[in-house]
Amino acid sequence: MKQWVVQDKEHGLDGLVFQKDAPMPKVGEYEVLVKIEAASLNYRDLIIPQGLYPFPTTLPVVPGSDGAGEVVAVGPKVVEFQKGDKVATLFNQGHQYGDVDIPATKTGLGGVIDGTLREYGVFEEKGLVKAPVNLNPVESSTLTCAAVTSWNALYGIRPLKPGQSVLVQGTGGVSIFGLQFAKAAGATVIATTSSAKKAERLKKLGADHIINYKTDPNWGETARKLTPGEAGVDHIIEVGGTGTLEQSFKCIKFEGVISVIGFLGGVDPKGQPSILDTLSSICTVRGVYVGSKAMMRDMVRAIEANDIHPVVDEKVFSLDQTRDAYDYMWAQKHFGKVAVKIA
């Protein structure tokens, strides 16, 4: 079969190697063989070959945490799946329910365990979930990391309630899923972007208010003024880093939650808000590391019940174009999820 492999961290994205004659994986007693029909990329996939990923990796490894496909064989002791089932992958294969722990962080798909950028993959039964019935394989392939992370941000510690407000930053996968989940829950959504074109697309997805952070660098105060009584935002999906975190503190509501997902804008220790800002703002700031299988199942049920469809970038790549997909995403040319169609 064909597959991609991250060989090392010394050559950056050139460490990605395309193998056209890799051996087919064999199915163990508790394992499932999946014909992978589609995969999608995350920022994590771009930084693993560059040695910038802060969690465990074991190289060489087949990259990609996100994937969806069809079960073509099951081991004799598998009970949850059968041949023909449509499935999606779980990010941390060992994170089944409850809080993430250190052992679970060492089971990351596409980092420690061979991932989804290949034609076939064997996964433990516990490392898969049934895909939403309302989605096609490309759509289902986007759920593993960004969607579950966004769901965890909104429901993992202080569940979002109808009528509350959510602020999402930019138009990456986590932020777009956050917008969709928040609107389905009956929340008001404030979105930030730097582009008039992207602002129009955010409006079509249901964003109630849009702020251009390039023309309004003090957007935190602007966002606060958009909330009832200027009390502030209930949930913030924080993906930017030092600069955006400073603004997030300016608009978070008392007892609100800032879920820190990433640092796309970089980290500047000198400009970083102090931990004491949590006291003056009376808020919770938490790091989010994707989510459990139980959480992913809850999310799938919500996707089916509300007929939510992931936003996939208009440019979909083939398996042999995966390196092009990496370059495309690294150049930030995408809107929503960058997908790779495999079968």
Q: What's this model, at a glance?
A:
The strands form 3 sheets. Strands 3, 4, 5, 6, 7, 14 and 15 form a 7-stranded mixed β-sheet that branches. This protein has a 6-stranded parallel β-sheet with strand order 10-9-8-11-12-13, sandwiched between helices. It has a two-stranded antiparallel ribbon with strand order 1-2.
What does this entry look like structurally?
The chain is of the alpha/beta class and 343 residues long. The chain folds into two domains: 3-144 and 291-341, Quinone Oxidoreductase, Chain A, domain 1 (Alpha-Beta Complex), CATH 3.90.180; 150-287, Rossmann fold (3-Layer(aba) Sandwich). The chain contains eleven helices and 15 strands. It has helices at 43-47, 102-105, 137-140, 143-155, 173-184, 196-204, 219-225, 242-251, 277-281, 293-306, 322-330; strands at 3-6, 16-19, 31-40, 66-74, 86-89, 120-124, 128-130, 165-169, 188-193, 209-212, 233-238, 252-260, 284-287, 317-318, 339-341. Strands 3, 4, 5, 6, 7, 14 and 15 form a seven-stranded mixed beta sheet that branches. Strand 8, helix 5 (173-184) and strand 9 form a beta-alpha-beta unit. The longest helix is centred in the last third of the chain and has 14 residues, at 293-306. The protein is globular and about 60 Å long. The chain starts with a strand and ends with a strand.
Explain the layout of strands and helices.
Blueprint: E1 3-6, E2 16-19, E3 31-40, H1 43-47, E4 66-74, E5 86-89, H2 102-105, E6 120-124, E7 128-130, H3 137-140, H4 143-155, E8 165-169, H5 173-184, E9 188-193, H6 196-204, E10 209-212, H7 219-225, E11 233-238, H8 242-251, E12 252-260, H9 277-281, E13 284-287, H10 293-306, E14 317-318, H11 322-330, E15 339-341
Parallel strand pairs: 8-9, 8-11, 9-10, 11-12, 12-13, 14-15
Antiparallel strand pairs: 1-2, 3-4, 3-6, 3-15, 4-5, 5-7
Helix pairs in contact: 4-5, 7-8
Domain Enoyl reductase (ER): 12-340
Organism: Penicillium brasilianum
GO molecular function: oxidoreductase activity
